[in-house]
Design brief:
mainly alpha, 3 helices, about 0% strand
Length: about 190
């Protein structure tokens, strides 16, 4: 009996209560009207604004891309210009170094020439001075040797050799013999 009562209640409950999965026909109509109104508002108001916003963002992005491309081209042009200037500066530095080397070589050559000329002048002066001192010493030596030789000869002979011309001839002959023997020894 209880089963029969539950079955009877279940049958009458289906008829009286609407199904939770299938709404009533008036709910479907009002939902469709609301959907159409919302769709119309969305189609006429929201969608054009969204499209406008998307178009503006697209244009801004394209503009930024164009600006970035322009900046990239300018950076590449600046890099090429910098590279060209750097190459030119390196070339000029090489030319300056080469000119400095050439100038250095010229200065060294001029200094060597000047030093050689100065050395030749000093050597010539020294030779001249040495020759003058040699001549002075030779004259002094001749007179002293002549005097000593005459005194020695006078002591050996036992008489005074006072004749200057005769004494001078003896001294000159002695010195000439001495020079001849030195030259023969060399």
């Amino acid at each position: 009996m209880l089963n029969a009562l539950v079955a009877f209640a279940a049958e009458h409950a289906e008829e009286a209560a609407p199904s939770p999965l299938i709404p009533a026909w008036y709910d479907i109509i009002w939902s469709a009207v609301c959907f159409v109104v919302i769709l119309f508002v969305f189609w006429r108001v929201v969608l054009p604004r969204m499209q406008k916003l998307l178009d503006e963002r697209g244009a801004a992005i394209e503009g930024n891309i164009a600006k970035a491309d322009e900046a990239q081209r300018q950076a590449e042009a600046a890099l090429e210009q910098y590279t060209a200037q750097l190459a030119e500066a390196r070339k000029e530095a090489g030319e300056i170094r080469e000119a400095a080397r050439e100038d250095g070589k010229k200065i060294v050559a001029e200094a060597k020439d000047t030093a050689a000329a100065e050395a030749a002048r000093i050597t010539a002066t020294a030779h001249t001075q040495i020759e003058a001192e040699r001549q002075t010493a030779l004259v002094s030596l001749r007179s002293e040797v002549g005097t000593l030789a005459l005194d020695l000869a006078g002591n050996v002979i036992g008489e005074t050799l006072s004749d200057d011309q005769k004494a001078q001839a003896v001294v000159d002959r002695f010195l000439a013999d001495l020079e001849a023997s030195e030259k023969a020894a060399q």
